[in-house]
Design goal:
Pnp Oxidase, Chain A, 7-stranded antiparallel sheet
Length: 214
C-alpha cells in the first residue's frame, strides 16, 4: 500500500510548531510538571492493575505503528522505578513492533484499566532480550515468551479522562453488537479474494486464539 507524498488538499496545513502553538493556549505549569520521569508508588499500582496497553513504535520508513498488548492485570512487570518488562506472546509473526524497535528504540505506551477514565502514558526506549532468567518470570502454562521487551522509562504521567468519557468507552449502553459488523473471516475472504468460507476462517481464528494464547 502506498502513502500520499503530499498533504491532503485542505488549506492551511500547519507546518511549524510556531504555527501550531499560535492556535492553542500554553499548557499549565501543573500539566508540564506532572511528568515525574519515574515510576512512583501510584504509577506502579496503576500498571499492576492494568490488563491492556497500546504500544507505539516508528520504523525506519517513518511510519508509526500501534499494536495492542494484553494479559492478566500486571502482565507488564515493573522491575524498578525506571524499567518495565513486557513479554512477547504469540501473534501473527509480522514482528512490526519488534523490527521497528531494532531500528529505532523509541517507544510509547498507553495503559488502560477497564472502568477507569484515567490512562497512563509512558515514553522511553526499548530493547529486546532473550535472557533466560528474565523470560522465566513470564512463563504461562509451561510456555515462556519468545522474547521480553525491556523499556527504559523517560517520561510517565497520567492523562485526563476526557477522551474515554467522550467515547463512552466503558458504558455498556454504547456497546455495538459484534453482529453489526462483518466477521474477521468475512473481511479476510473479501480482501484477500479467498475461496474459503468465512465461517471456516472464523473457526480457524478462534481455534488459534484458544490454543495459542500463550
Amino acid at each position: 500500500m502506498t502513502t500520499p507524498s503530499t498533504p491532503p488538499a485542505f488549506s492551511p496545513i500547519l507546518k511549524t510548531e510556531t504555527e501550531l502553538r499560535a492556535i492553542y493556549k500554553a499548557p499549565s505549569r501543573h500539566v508540564v510538571a506532572k511528568n515525574i520521569g519515574r515510576i512512583d508508588a501510584h504509577f506502579r499500582a496503576f500498571i499492576e492493575r492494568s490488563p491492556f496497553a497500546c504500544l507505539g513504535t516508528v520504523g525506519l520508513d517513518g511510519l508509526g505503528d500501534v499494536t495492542p498488548r494484553g494479559g492478566a492485570p500486571g502482565f507488564i512487570h515493573v522491575l524498578d522505578e525506571h524499567v518495565l518488562a513486557l513479554p512477547d506472546r504469540p501473534g501473527n509473526n509480522r514482528l512490526d513492533s519488534l523490527t521497528n524497535l531494532i531500528a529505532r528504540p523509541g517507544i510509547g505506551l498507553l495503559f488502560l484499566i477497564p472502568g477507569f477514565e484515567d490512562t497512563l502514558r509512558v515514553n522511553g526506549t526499548a530493547h529486546l532480550s532473550t535472557d533466560e532468567a528474565l523470560m522465566q518470570r513470564f512463563v504461562e502454562g509451561s510456555k515462556p515468551p519468545r522474547s521480553v521487551m525491556l523499556i527504559e522509562v523517560k517520561e510517565i504521567y497520567f492523562h485526563c479522562g476526557k477522551a474515554i468519557r467522550r467515547a463512552g468507552l466503558w458504558d455498556a449502553a454504547t456497546f455495538a453488537k459484534r453482529t453489526s459488523f462483518p466477521s474477521a473471516g468475512e473481511i479476510y475472504r473479501d480482501q484477500l479474494k479467498l475461496e474459503n468460507e468465512a465461517a471456516t476462517l472464523d473457526a480457524s481464528f478462534e481455534k488459534d486464539a484458544r490454543d495459542n494464547l500463550y
